[in-house]
Protein backbone atom coordinates (compact mmCIF):
# COMPACT_ATOMS: atom_id res chain seq x y z
CA UNK A 1 0.00 0.00 0.00
CA UNK A 2 1.33 3.45 -0.87
CA UNK A 3 0.02 7.01 -0.69
CA UNK A 4 1.87 9.74 -2.55
CA UNK A 5 1.54 13.44 -3.37
CA UNK A 6 3.10 14.53 -6.66
CA UNK A 7 3.68 18.11 -7.78
CA UNK A 8 3.11 18.84 -11.47
CA UNK A 9 2.67 22.64 -11.43
CA UNK A 10 2.39 25.49 -8.96
CA UNK A 11 5.30 24.59 -6.71
CA UNK A 12 8.04 26.37 -8.66
CA UNK A 13 5.82 29.39 -9.46
CA UNK A 14 2.62 31.14 -8.38
CA UNK A 15 0.03 29.68 -10.72
CA UNK A 16 -0.15 26.69 -13.11
CA UNK A 17 -1.53 24.67 -10.20
CA UNK A 18 -1.70 20.90 -10.68
CA UNK A 19 -1.22 18.25 -8.00
CA UNK A 20 -1.67 14.47 -8.00
CA UNK A 21 -2.75 12.32 -5.08
CA UNK A 22 -1.81 8.72 -5.86
CA UNK A 23 -3.03 5.69 -3.91
CA UNK A 24 -1.33 2.55 -5.23
CA UNK A 25 -1.91 2.93 -8.98
CA UNK A 26 -5.01 5.17 -8.74
CA UNK A 27 -4.72 8.94 -9.22
CA UNK A 28 -6.83 12.01 -8.46
CA UNK A 29 -5.77 15.22 -10.21
CA UNK A 30 -6.34 18.40 -8.24
CA UNK A 31 -6.56 21.51 -10.46
CA UNK A 32 -5.08 22.20 -13.89
CA UNK A 33 -4.27 25.89 -14.19
CA UNK A 34 -2.71 28.56 -16.37
CA UNK A 35 0.52 30.37 -15.59
CA UNK A 36 -0.88 33.77 -16.49
CA UNK A 37 2.40 35.78 -16.75
CA UNK A 38 3.52 33.57 -19.65
CA UNK A 39 0.30 34.28 -21.50
CA UNK A 40 0.52 38.02 -20.77
CA UNK A 41 4.09 38.16 -22.13
CA UNK A 42 3.11 36.17 -25.22
CA UNK A 43 0.06 38.32 -25.98
CA UNK A 44 1.94 41.58 -25.32
CA UNK A 45 4.36 40.52 -28.07
CA UNK A 46 1.46 40.12 -30.48
CA UNK A 47 0.76 36.42 -30.01
CA UNK A 48 -2.69 34.85 -30.03
CA UNK A 49 -3.21 31.90 -27.70
CA UNK A 50 -5.75 30.42 -30.15
CA UNK A 51 -2.85 29.77 -32.50
CA UNK A 52 -1.01 27.68 -29.92
CA UNK A 53 -1.25 23.90 -29.68
CA UNK A 54 -1.23 22.13 -26.31
CA UNK A 55 2.46 21.42 -26.76
CA UNK A 56 2.98 25.07 -27.68
CA UNK A 57 1.25 26.20 -24.48
CA UNK A 58 3.38 23.78 -22.47
CA UNK A 59 6.58 24.94 -24.16
CA UNK A 60 5.58 28.51 -23.36
CA UNK A 61 5.14 27.47 -19.72
CA UNK A 62 1.51 28.56 -19.73
CA UNK A 63 0.00 25.19 -18.75
CA UNK A 64 1.40 22.24 -16.78
CA UNK A 65 3.51 19.64 -18.56
CA UNK A 66 1.66 16.39 -17.89
CA UNK A 67 3.56 14.31 -20.45
CA UNK A 68 4.90 12.01 -17.73
CA UNK A 69 1.31 10.89 -17.10
CA UNK A 70 0.68 9.68 -20.67
CA UNK A 71 0.89 6.01 -19.67
CA UNK A 72 -1.48 6.53 -16.71
CA UNK A 73 -4.53 7.95 -18.48
CA UNK A 74 -6.72 5.03 -17.40
CA UNK A 75 -5.48 5.27 -13.80
CA UNK A 76 -6.81 8.80 -13.27
CA UNK A 77 -10.08 8.44 -11.38
CA UNK A 78 -11.07 12.12 -11.30
CA UNK A 79 -10.01 15.63 -12.23
CA UNK A 80 -11.10 17.91 -9.39
CA UNK A 81 -10.87 21.71 -9.69
CA UNK A 82 -11.10 23.44 -6.31
CA UNK A 83 -12.56 26.67 -7.75
CA UNK A 84 -12.93 28.71 -10.93
CA UNK A 85 -9.79 30.86 -11.05
CA UNK A 86 -7.76 30.51 -14.24
CA UNK A 87 -4.61 29.45 -12.40
CA UNK A 88 -6.62 26.44 -11.21
CA UNK A 89 -8.99 25.56 -14.09
CA UNK A 90 -7.61 27.32 -17.18
CA UNK A 91 -5.69 24.29 -18.48
CA UNK A 92 -8.51 21.76 -18.03
CA UNK A 93 -10.04 22.29 -21.51
CA UNK A 94 -6.59 21.61 -23.03
CA UNK A 95 -5.43 18.67 -20.91
CA UNK A 96 -8.53 16.75 -19.79
CA UNK A 97 -8.75 14.91 -23.13
CA UNK A 98 -5.50 13.11 -22.22
CA UNK A 99 -7.41 11.07 -19.63
CA UNK A 100 -10.36 8.70 -19.45
CA UNK A 101 -12.02 9.94 -16.29
CA UNK A 102 -14.57 12.39 -14.91
CA UNK A 103 -14.40 16.07 -13.96
CA UNK A 104 -15.95 16.94 -10.59
CA UNK A 105 -16.59 20.49 -9.43
CA UNK A 106 -18.99 22.83 -7.68
CA UNK A 107 -21.81 24.53 -9.65
CA UNK A 108 -20.10 27.89 -10.22
CA UNK A 109 -16.73 26.29 -10.99
CA UNK A 110 -18.25 24.02 -13.63
CA UNK A 111 -20.31 26.85 -15.12
CA UNK A 112 -17.13 28.91 -15.60
CA UNK A 113 -15.21 25.88 -16.90
CA UNK A 114 -17.84 25.21 -19.55
CA UNK A 115 -17.70 28.87 -20.60
CA UNK A 116 -13.90 28.78 -20.87
CA UNK A 117 -14.05 25.67 -23.05
CA UNK A 118 -16.70 27.26 -25.27
CA UNK A 119 -14.66 30.46 -25.63
CA UNK A 120 -11.64 28.46 -26.81
CA UNK A 121 -13.80 26.34 -29.16
CA UNK A 122 -12.85 23.26 -27.17
CA UNK A 123 -15.25 20.48 -26.28
CA UNK A 124 -14.77 18.66 -23.00
CA UNK A 125 -14.31 14.96 -23.70
CA UNK A 126 -14.90 13.69 -20.19
CA UNK A 127 -18.24 13.71 -18.33
CA UNK A 128 -18.75 16.55 -15.88
CA UNK A 129 -20.23 15.95 -12.44
CA UNK A 130 -21.57 18.91 -10.45
CA UNK A 131 -21.47 18.58 -6.66
CA UNK A 132 -22.04 21.13 -3.94
CA UNK A 133 -19.98 21.75 -0.83
CA UNK A 134 -20.77 19.13 1.78
CA UNK A 135 -20.96 16.28 -0.73
CA UNK A 136 -18.81 13.18 -1.18
CA UNK A 137 -18.24 11.24 -4.40
CA UNK A 138 -16.84 7.71 -4.59
CA UNK A 139 -14.48 7.73 -7.58
CA UNK A 140 -13.19 4.18 -7.07
CA UNK A 141 -13.48 1.37 -4.55
CA UNK A 142 -10.54 2.90 -2.69
CA UNK A 143 -10.96 6.66 -3.10
CA UNK A 144 -13.65 9.16 -2.12
CA UNK A 145 -13.57 12.87 -2.89
CA UNK A 146 -15.21 15.18 -0.35
CA UNK A 147 -15.99 18.88 -0.87
CA UNK A 148 -15.70 21.04 2.27
CA UNK A 149 -17.04 24.57 1.89
CA UNK A 150 -14.61 27.43 2.41
CA UNK A 151 -14.15 31.10 1.46
CA UNK A 152 -11.82 32.75 -1.03
CA UNK A 153 -12.26 35.61 -3.53
CA UNK A 154 -14.81 33.90 -5.76
CA UNK A 155 -17.84 31.62 -5.41
CA UNK A 156 -18.36 27.94 -4.58
CA UNK A 157 -14.79 27.34 -3.38
CA UNK A 158 -14.02 24.07 -1.58
CA UNK A 159 -11.25 22.39 0.33
CA UNK A 160 -10.95 18.92 -1.18
CA UNK A 161 -10.47 15.89 1.08
CA UNK A 162 -9.18 12.77 -0.69
CA UNK A 163 -10.19 9.76 1.41
CA UNK A 164 -8.11 6.58 0.99
CA UNK A 165 -7.56 3.43 3.07
CA UNK A 166 -4.23 4.99 4.13
CA UNK A 167 -5.86 8.18 5.40
CA UNK A 168 -6.87 11.60 4.06
CA UNK A 169 -5.00 14.13 1.96
CA UNK A 170 -6.57 17.57 2.39
CA UNK A 171 -6.12 20.11 -0.42
CA UNK A 172 -6.66 23.75 0.58
CA UNK A 173 -5.73 25.71 -2.56
CA UNK A 174 -7.16 28.36 -2.12
CA UNK A 175 -8.75 29.51 1.13
CA UNK A 176 -9.07 32.10 3.82
CA UNK A 177 -11.25 32.07 6.94
CA UNK A 178 -13.92 34.70 6.30
CA UNK A 179 -16.62 34.64 8.97
CA UNK A 180 -18.67 37.41 7.34
CA UNK A 181 -18.67 36.76 3.59
CA UNK A 182 -20.66 39.13 1.40
CA UNK A 183 -21.99 36.17 -0.62
CA UNK A 184 -22.28 32.58 0.54
CA UNK A 185 -21.61 30.77 3.79
CA UNK A 186 -18.65 30.97 6.14
CA UNK A 187 -16.19 28.04 6.10
CA UNK A 188 -17.36 24.64 7.33
CA UNK A 189 -15.38 24.69 10.57
CA UNK A 190 -17.39 21.81 12.02
CA UNK A 191 -16.33 19.41 9.28
CA UNK A 192 -12.69 20.48 9.45
CA UNK A 193 -12.75 20.06 13.22
CA UNK A 194 -14.32 16.61 12.83
CA UNK A 195 -11.53 15.52 10.49
CA UNK A 196 -9.02 16.69 13.09
CA UNK A 197 -10.71 14.72 15.86
CA UNK A 198 -10.72 11.59 13.71
CA UNK A 199 -6.95 11.89 13.34
CA UNK A 200 -6.96 10.63 9.77
CA UNK A 201 -5.44 13.60 7.94
CA UNK A 202 -2.15 12.17 6.75
CA UNK A 203 -1.18 15.36 4.94
CA UNK A 204 -2.47 18.84 4.17
CA UNK A 205 -1.57 20.77 1.04
CA UNK A 206 -1.71 24.15 2.71
CA UNK A 207 -2.23 27.41 0.83
CA UNK A 208 0.80 29.28 2.15
CA UNK A 209 1.11 32.11 -0.39
CA UNK A 210 0.84 34.78 2.31
CA UNK A 211 2.47 32.82 5.11
CA UNK A 212 5.13 35.55 5.35
CA UNK A 213 2.45 37.96 6.60
CA UNK A 214 1.91 37.71 10.40
CA UNK A 215 -1.81 38.46 10.34
CA UNK A 216 -5.26 37.08 9.67
CA UNK A 217 -6.56 38.02 6.22
CA UNK A 218 -9.50 40.42 6.64
CA UNK A 219 -13.06 39.56 5.65
CA UNK A 220 -14.52 40.61 2.30
CA UNK A 221 -16.77 42.85 4.38
CA UNK A 222 -13.68 44.94 5.13
CA UNK A 223 -13.14 45.48 1.40
CA UNK A 224 -16.83 46.39 1.12
CA UNK A 225 -16.40 49.07 3.79
CA UNK A 226 -13.23 50.38 2.09
CA UNK A 227 -15.14 50.65 -1.16
CA UNK A 228 -18.04 52.38 0.57
CA UNK A 229 -15.67 54.88 2.18
CA UNK A 230 -14.17 55.86 -1.19
CA UNK A 231 -17.42 55.93 -3.14
CA UNK A 232 -19.28 58.03 -0.55
CA UNK A 233 -16.41 59.79 1.21
CA UNK A 234 -14.68 61.43 -1.76
CA UNK A 235 -16.56 64.12 -3.68
CA UNK A 236 -17.54 62.70 -7.06
CA UNK A 237 -20.33 65.08 -8.03
CA UNK A 238 -20.06 66.05 -11.68
CA UNK A 239 -17.28 63.55 -12.31
CA UNK A 240 -16.88 60.17 -13.95
CA UNK A 241 -16.50 57.16 -11.69
CA UNK A 242 -14.76 54.18 -13.26
CA UNK A 243 -13.74 51.15 -11.26
CA UNK A 244 -12.18 47.78 -11.86
CA UNK A 245 -11.63 44.53 -9.99
CA UNK A 246 -11.09 40.86 -10.78
CA UNK A 247 -13.97 39.66 -12.95
CA UNK A 248 -14.46 36.56 -10.80
CA UNK A 249 -14.75 38.65 -7.61
CA UNK A 250 -18.53 38.46 -7.60
CA UNK A 251 -18.94 39.67 -4.01
CA UNK A 252 -16.94 42.84 -4.82
CA UNK A 253 -19.01 43.43 -7.94
CA UNK A 254 -22.15 43.09 -5.83
CA UNK A 255 -20.90 45.81 -3.47
CA UNK A 256 -20.04 48.09 -6.39
CA UNK A 257 -23.50 47.70 -7.88
CA UNK A 258 -25.31 48.27 -4.59
CA UNK A 259 -23.31 51.40 -3.75
CA UNK A 260 -23.62 52.71 -7.29
CA UNK A 261 -27.39 52.50 -7.04
CA UNK A 262 -27.32 54.41 -3.76
CA UNK A 263 -25.38 57.13 -5.59
CA UNK A 264 -28.25 57.15 -8.10
CA UNK A 265 -25.92 56.21 -10.95
CA UNK A 266 -26.74 53.87 -13.82
CA UNK A 267 -24.47 50.82 -13.66
CA UNK A 268 -22.61 49.73 -16.79
CA UNK A 269 -20.25 46.74 -17.03
CA UNK A 270 -17.76 46.89 -19.92
CA UNK A 271 -15.73 43.87 -21.03
CA UNK A 272 -16.04 40.23 -22.03
CA UNK A 273 -14.59 38.68 -18.88
CA UNK A 274 -17.03 40.61 -16.69
CA UNK A 275 -19.87 39.33 -18.85
CA UNK A 276 -18.54 35.78 -18.64
CA UNK A 277 -18.24 35.57 -14.85
CA UNK A 278 -21.42 37.49 -14.04
CA UNK A 279 -23.40 35.34 -16.47
CA UNK A 280 -22.10 32.27 -14.63
CA UNK A 281 -23.21 33.87 -11.34
CA UNK A 282 -26.68 34.50 -12.74
CA UNK A 283 -26.94 30.94 -14.07
CA UNK A 284 -26.02 29.48 -10.68
CA UNK A 285 -28.32 31.70 -8.62
CA UNK A 286 -25.77 34.19 -7.29
CA UNK A 287 -26.42 37.09 -9.65
CA UNK A 288 -29.65 38.67 -8.42
CA UNK A 289 -27.85 41.99 -7.93
CA UNK A 290 -27.24 42.16 -11.71
CA UNK A 291 -30.90 42.73 -12.63
CA UNK A 292 -30.48 46.45 -13.45
CA UNK A 293 -26.91 46.32 -14.77
CA UNK A 294 -26.20 47.01 -18.44
CA UNK A 295 -23.49 44.69 -19.77
CA UNK A 296 -21.63 45.78 -22.92
CA UNK A 297 -19.07 43.53 -24.61
CA UNK A 298 -18.81 44.09 -28.37
CA UNK A 299 -16.30 46.68 -29.60
CA UNK A 300 -18.69 49.01 -31.42
CA UNK A 301 -21.21 48.88 -28.59
CA UNK A 302 -18.45 49.74 -26.09
CA UNK A 303 -17.40 52.73 -28.20
CA UNK A 304 -20.98 54.01 -28.46
CA UNK A 305 -21.55 53.57 -24.75
CA UNK A 306 -18.36 55.40 -23.78
CA UNK A 307 -19.31 58.35 -25.97
CA UNK A 308 -22.67 58.45 -24.20
CA UNK A 309 -21.02 58.20 -20.76
CA UNK A 310 -18.56 60.99 -21.62
CA UNK A 311 -21.46 63.40 -22.24
CA UNK A 312 -23.21 62.54 -18.92
CA UNK A 313 -20.23 61.38 -16.88
CA UNK A 314 -21.82 61.82 -13.46
CA UNK A 315 -24.88 59.80 -14.43
CA UNK A 316 -23.00 56.49 -14.65
CA UNK A 317 -20.90 54.11 -12.62
CA UNK A 318 -18.64 52.18 -14.99
CA UNK A 319 -17.15 48.84 -13.98
CA UNK A 320 -14.65 47.61 -16.56
CA UNK A 321 -11.88 45.14 -17.23
CA UNK A 322 -8.24 46.13 -16.77
CA UNK A 323 -7.43 45.82 -13.07
CA UNK A 324 -3.95 44.52 -13.98
CA UNK A 325 -3.68 46.86 -17.01
CA UNK A 326 -3.90 43.82 -19.25
CA UNK A 327 -3.29 44.44 -22.96
CA UNK A 328 -6.63 44.69 -24.73
CA UNK A 329 -8.66 45.39 -21.59
CA UNK A 330 -11.14 48.26 -21.54
CA UNK A 331 -9.26 50.45 -19.06
CA UNK A 332 -5.94 49.97 -20.86
CA UNK A 333 -7.53 50.88 -24.19
CA UNK A 334 -9.08 54.00 -22.65
CA UNK A 335 -5.66 54.99 -21.32
CA UNK A 336 -3.98 54.45 -24.70
CA UNK A 337 -6.72 56.45 -26.49
CA UNK A 338 -7.88 53.41 -28.45
CA UNK A 339 -11.36 53.93 -27.02
CA UNK A 340 -13.30 57.23 -27.22
CA UNK A 341 -13.40 58.48 -23.65
CA UNK A 342 -11.57 61.56 -22.42
CA UNK A 343 -11.04 62.10 -18.71
CA UNK A 344 -11.37 65.51 -17.14
CA UNK A 345 -9.76 66.83 -13.97
CA UNK A 346 -10.87 65.02 -10.79
CA UNK A 347 -12.63 62.10 -12.48
CA UNK A 348 -12.32 58.97 -10.33
CA UNK A 349 -10.65 55.65 -11.07
CA UNK A 350 -10.92 53.02 -8.34
CA UNK A 351 -8.66 49.95 -8.47
CA UNK A 352 -10.43 47.50 -6.15
CA UNK A 353 -7.58 45.01 -6.39
CA UNK A 354 -3.90 44.48 -5.72
CA UNK A 355 -1.37 44.31 -8.52
CA UNK A 356 -0.34 40.67 -8.96
CA UNK A 357 3.42 40.80 -8.24
CA UNK A 358 4.84 39.71 -11.60
CA UNK A 359 6.86 42.02 -13.85
CA UNK A 360 4.38 42.51 -16.75
CA UNK A 361 1.54 43.46 -14.40
CA UNK A 362 3.65 45.81 -12.29
CA UNK A 363 5.07 47.60 -15.33
CA UNK A 364 1.73 47.84 -17.12
CA UNK A 365 -0.07 49.22 -14.07
CA UNK A 366 2.63 51.81 -13.40
CA UNK A 367 2.49 52.99 -17.00
CA UNK A 368 -1.31 53.20 -16.98
CA UNK A 369 -1.49 55.05 -13.67
CA UNK A 370 1.09 57.63 -14.82
CA UNK A 371 -0.99 58.27 -17.92
CA UNK A 372 -4.13 58.88 -15.86
CA UNK A 373 -2.30 61.08 -13.37
CA UNK A 374 -1.12 63.32 -16.22
CA UNK A 375 -4.79 63.85 -17.05
CA UNK A 376 -5.58 64.97 -13.49
CA UNK A 377 -7.54 61.84 -12.60
CA UNK A 378 -7.99 60.92 -8.94
CA UNK A 379 -6.68 57.37 -8.46
CA UNK A 380 -7.76 55.18 -5.55
CA UNK A 381 -5.59 52.05 -5.31
CA UNK A 382 -5.61 48.84 -3.29
CA UNK A 383 -9.27 49.03 -2.24
CA UNK A 384 -9.02 45.34 -1.61
CA UNK A 385 -8.52 42.40 0.72
CA UNK A 386 -6.94 39.15 -0.38
CA UNK A 387 -8.65 35.82 -0.91
CA UNK A 388 -5.62 33.99 0.46
CA UNK A 389 -5.19 33.27 4.14
CA UNK A 390 -2.14 34.71 5.88
CA UNK A 391 -0.05 33.09 8.62
CA UNK A 392 -2.75 33.09 11.30
CA UNK A 393 -5.29 31.54 8.93
CA UNK A 394 -2.74 28.78 8.32
CA UNK A 395 -2.34 28.32 12.08
CA UNK A 396 -6.10 27.99 12.52
CA UNK A 397 -6.33 25.44 9.71
CA UNK A 398 -3.54 23.35 11.24
CA UNK A 399 -5.14 23.52 14.68
CA UNK A 400 -8.47 22.40 13.24
CA UNK A 401 -7.40 19.40 11.13
CA UNK A 402 -4.23 18.34 12.99
CA UNK A 403 -2.38 16.92 9.96
CA UNK A 404 0.53 14.51 10.37
CA UNK A 405 2.45 16.18 7.54
CA UNK A 406 2.23 19.75 6.20
CA UNK A 407 3.06 20.42 2.54
CA UNK A 408 3.05 24.19 1.83
CA UNK A 409 1.53 25.05 -1.56
CA UNK A 410 0.75 27.85 -4.01
CA UNK A 411 4.18 29.14 -4.88
CA UNK A 412 7.91 28.55 -4.63
CA UNK A 413 9.89 28.61 -1.39
CA UNK A 414 10.35 32.39 -1.59
CA UNK A 415 6.57 32.84 -1.34
CA UNK A 416 5.67 30.03 1.06
CA UNK A 417 8.77 29.91 3.24
CA UNK A 418 7.06 31.81 6.03
CA UNK A 419 5.24 28.62 6.96
CA UNK A 420 8.48 27.19 8.40
CA UNK A 421 8.58 29.50 11.41
CA UNK A 422 4.93 28.87 12.23
CA UNK A 423 5.06 25.10 11.93
CA UNK A 424 8.20 24.78 14.00
CA UNK A 425 6.41 26.62 16.81
CA UNK A 426 3.58 24.10 16.44
CA UNK A 427 5.96 21.15 16.77
CA UNK A 428 6.50 20.19 13.14
CA UNK A 429 10.00 19.33 11.92
CA UNK A 430 11.29 20.58 8.58
CA UNK A 431 12.17 17.67 6.32
CA UNK A 432 10.02 15.26 8.30
CA UNK A 433 6.55 16.50 9.23
CA UNK A 434 6.99 19.71 7.20
CA UNK A 435 7.95 18.88 3.62
CA UNK A 436 8.37 21.13 0.62
CA UNK A 437 7.20 19.91 -2.76
CA UNK A 438 8.46 20.92 -6.21
CA UNK A 439 7.22 20.40 -9.74
CA UNK A 440 8.06 16.86 -10.82
CA UNK A 441 8.79 15.72 -7.28
CA UNK A 442 6.99 13.16 -5.11
CA UNK A 443 6.37 12.97 -1.38
CA UNK A 444 5.72 9.50 0.02
CA UNK A 445 3.35 9.61 2.98
CA UNK A 446 4.89 6.85 5.07
Explain how this protein is built.
It is a single chain. The protein has helices at residues 36-44, 54-60, 86-89, 92-95, 107-119, 189-198, 220-233, 250-262, 272-283, 299-311, 330-335, 359-374, 391-401, 413-416, 419-425, and strands at 3-9, 18-23, 26-30, 76-80, 103-105, 128-130, 136-138, 144-149, 158-164, 167-171, 201-207, 241-244, 266-270, 294-296, 316-320, 348-351, 378-380, 405-409, 442-444. It is α/β, with parallel strands linked by helices. It folds into 2 domains: 3-216 and 387-444, Ribonuclease Z/Hydroxyacylglutathione hydrolase-like (Metallo-beta-lactamase, Chain A, 4-Layer Sandwich); 220-380, Metallo-hydrolase/oxidoreductase (Rossmann fold), CATH 3.40.50. The strands form 4 sheets. Strands 7-8-9-10-11-18 form a 6-stranded mixed β-sheet, with helices on one face. Helix 5 (107-119) runs antiparallel to helix 9, helix 6 packs across helix 13 and helix 7 packs parallel to helix 8 (250-262). The chain is globular and about 70 Å long. The N and C termini lie close together (10 Å).
Question: What's the short story on this structure?
Answer:
By secondary structure, the chain is of the alpha/beta class.
Low-confidence stretches: none
Q: Based on DSSP secondary structure assignment, what is the total number of beta strands?
A: 19
Terminal residue distance: 10 Å
Alpha-carbon Rg, integer? 22 Å
Oligomer: single chain
CATH architecture of the largest domain: 4-Layer Sandwich
What amount of the residues lies in strands? 15-25%
| Biggest sheet strand line-up | 7-8-9-10-11-18
Indicate how many domains the architecture comprises: 2
Number of helices: 15
Spatial shape: globular
Amino acid sequence: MSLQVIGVGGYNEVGKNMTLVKYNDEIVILDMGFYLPSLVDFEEQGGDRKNLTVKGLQKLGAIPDDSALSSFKNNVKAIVPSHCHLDHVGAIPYLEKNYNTKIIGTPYTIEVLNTLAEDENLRLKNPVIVNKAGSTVEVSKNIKVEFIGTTHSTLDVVNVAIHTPEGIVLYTNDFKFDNNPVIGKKPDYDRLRELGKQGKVRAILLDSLYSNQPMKTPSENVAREMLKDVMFGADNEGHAMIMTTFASQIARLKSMVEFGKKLDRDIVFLGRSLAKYTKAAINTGYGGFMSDVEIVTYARQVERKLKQIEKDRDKYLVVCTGNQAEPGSILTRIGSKKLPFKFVHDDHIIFSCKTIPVSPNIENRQKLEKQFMKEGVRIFKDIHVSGHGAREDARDMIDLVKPEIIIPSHGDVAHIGGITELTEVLGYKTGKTLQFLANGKTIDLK
